[in-house]
UniProtKB/TrEMBL annotation:
GO terms for molecular function: 3'-5'-RNA exonuclease activity; nucleic acid binding. It comes from Clostridium thermobutyricum. It holds the Pfam family RNase_T. Keywords: Exonuclease, Hydrolase, Nuclease. PANTHER family: 3'-5' EXONUCLEASE ERI1-RELATED, 3'-5' EXORIBONUCLEASE 1-RELATED. InterPro entries: 3-5_Exoribonuclease, ERI-1_3'hExo-like, Ribonucl_H, RNaseH-like_sf, RNaseH_sf. This is Exonuclease domain-containing protein. Residues 2-193 form the Exonuclease domain. Gene3D superfamilies: Ribonuclease H-like superfamily/Ribonuclease H.
Amino acid sequence: MGYVVIDLEFNRMDNIEKHYPNIYLEHEYLKDIDIESEIIEIGAIKVDQYMKVEEELKVYIKPSIFPVLNPEIINITKITNEDLEKGISFEEAMAKLKEFTGNNILCSWAKDDIAQIIINSHYHKYEDIKWVNKYIDIQEYVTKVIGAKKSLSLKNALTRLNIKADSNLLHDALNDAYFTVQAFKQLYNYRIVKNYIVNNVYDMPAINLKCVDNIKLNYNMIKSSCPKCRRKIILDFDYMPARWRFISVGICSKCHSAVLNEVIVKKTLLGKVIYSEIGSILNEIEYSDYSYRLEKYFIKKEKKS
């Protein structure tokens, strides 16, 4: 059994009114649509257990969800309307990817792509996705093996691994799949890799939340531990929402280090909420800056209430 490394490109409606001011008047269904990303390109590379490339797949998908191709997406991916006009349907693309994958393990850089295969399939009422089972998040694997504290972008990982990559080639699905293979190959060790195989993609924390302002934290699920000695942090403040995560600072009960603790909230494809935490040791200036920011937030919040 080998691996199939995939990369997807998407069309989204972010900032679309800058380019099409009347789009929500002309296409009223977009106001209620329950999907953010439409898959428009699939790139996939099949490798054997020795990381030798066996086969490649590149497919454009003819859009059927969003009525226009976002100019910002064109700028990033260089995908054109002409490319997509020559594409195939979502159902045909999934059938091709299923056949291409066979009994191999699906892999991608971060969980977004695998999540969007499931989400797009549900939107299209496409049910033949039981083949999407065993999976490896190569971003998670590479980040942990390198020893990086926070998740690496593909570009940053390539830089750290001294893999040359022309930035003009990035954001092409097949090229990104190729660069992901290169990063995976350089750090590949099956005895370690097998610990990163997810056997049920529906149970993994695959959906990132863009904003946590309306999320109520369950403090019983938060450890708030020191990254240095793993003891409990005595928090100076409650957790404050900060875009996609919650943050707070405190002092370790054992080593007395000043610590920033970040709580990232994710959901599984079945809707279960999962927390992950990142603790960072702060110097005196950093601790003071975060404390000021937190204090200012909670004073403002108290005044509003």
